[in-house]
Amino acid sequence: MKRVISYQSTILSLVMCLSVGGASRAWAVAEVDAHAGHAHNSPAGGEDSHVQRVAVTQEQVARLGIKITRAVEGTVHSEIRVPGEIKVNADRFAHVVPRAAGVVRAVTKSLGDHVQAGEILAWVESEGLAEAKLDFYAMEAEVGCCELLLPRAKAIHGNVARLIRLLKEGAAEEAIRKLDGLEMGQYRGQLLIAHAAYLAARTTHEREADLHAKQISSAQELLAAETALRQARAAFQATMDTARFETMIEYTEAAQERQVAAFNAVAAEKRLRLKGADDEVVTSLRALIPKVALSEPCQCPDPNCAEGDLPKLGDTLGKDARFAWYALRAPFDGTLVEKHIVMGESIDTASEVFTVADLSSVWVDLAISQDAIPSVEKGYAVTIRLPNGGEFESEIAFVSPIVDADTRRALARVVLDNSEERFRPGTFVEAGIRAPTEGEAVVVPQASVQLVNDHTCLFVWGDSDFELRDIVTGASDGQQIEILEGLQPGEAVASENAFHLKAELATSGRSSGGHGHAH
User: Fold this and answer.
1) pLDDT of residue 35 exceeding 70
2) DSSP alpha helices (H): ranges in 275-373?
3) How many beta carbons lie within 10 A of that of residue 495, not counting itself?
4) Of 117, 211, 314, 490, which has the maximum CB count within 10 A?
5) Residue 511 has pLDDT above 50, yes or no
6) Taking each helix axis from N to C terminus, what angle separates 219-274 and 187-213, rounded to the nearest 10 degrees?
7) pTM check: above 0.85
8) pLDDT digits (tens, 9 = 90+) for 44-89
9) Which domains does the chain have, with CATH numbers?
10) For residues 31 and 220, what is the distance between their CA atoms, to the nearest angstrom?
């Protein structure tokens, strides 16, 4: 398993008692033969037979601040540096446009103001909104009217059916009178008249049949009575059929009208909301519609109205000067970053009057060159460096699968928390993307590596001195560096202020006439 180094190495402060020179301030530089028993890990495969060492004292270490760190095995992230730009989080960026054309009557917010979701930004007076309100009022009132007609049609249909059933069954007069007071419209009279005519014709026919059997009346009189009975029966049956059919039709039509009215009211409400009306406006308009009981006329509440007058629409809707006004509101918490609206201006539904941006988070869009694209993946750590020197840690949130046709670069995006408003969209930045290298290697702090006579070297700590050792380096992330050859895990190296050791080697080499064989 790979181990990524978060280098918190053990710093050895060299507080042990050093045997070379006691508390002397003098340096001791020695050159020994590697074949004499002081072999080292030379990456050159033994080309150099000399090992240079710098002996130090405790006082020198303390005064110069030389510290050492033990090498460990781990994985170093190589840093890919790319340019970038801070941008607004487009997922929290909105243009506020009017819901209906109109004239600006008030502007309540200014550029740069912080706003909350639903907060009013401006007021607009719209003729279209007024028309939508009146249309909604009319459609809702129509639903109320249908609410009166539908129950009445249903009641008439049911009551007529009960009366027909009693009449066909030949119910007694008392049973029929129990239906008195139930609404049946004109059908009660039609049915009772037709039924009475039928009963009269039947009685006449029975009397004529009895007289004819007693040879008191003629056959012609009996035939006339039979004809009258048939006609009365047919008329009664036709009246029942007509009443049954017409009440069913009226009930069905009332139900359909109620359904259509309800649909029209819903459509009117949708149109009203599209014009900028909110729940409060819809509820207040609906509350203005008169509520009347069944069969009761809608009376004018003004005592000065003539008897039977209906309330005027203007009185019902009130005399609110803002009847045609609606509010432009903030879509979410944010900052007004653009404002293109003044009082008295005529605006339409294409006008972008405000722009609201939630700057609590921002995007950093990075431009990844084609050769670096394979090395960048979502989740990789990244350091964002601002022009003022500030650095912030984050990770890659998105890598585009598409290369821009003009720049030949791919987009990588970082999301930064901006609750403290540190980042301003439009700022150009530099980013360092840390991509892990393959496999593990010996790792030491970057500051440990020194360049001595064009050789990459380390000062490796021994018992009482530092050995100058050539190395081969690998990947570096600016903090740590891989040592591919010349050092073993666990060996200790000068990790801070090693340049003092390098300077002493250079001084020693000059004093010996250049024969110090310094690397």
Assistant:
1) no
2) 279-288, 313-317
3) 25
4) 211
5) no
6) 170
7) no
8) 444 445 678 888 877 777 788 888 899 999 888 778 999 999 999 9
9) 11-76+441-511 (2.40.420.20), 80-89+359-436 (2.40.30.170), 93-125+324-356 (2.40.50.100), 129-284 (1.10.287)
10) 161
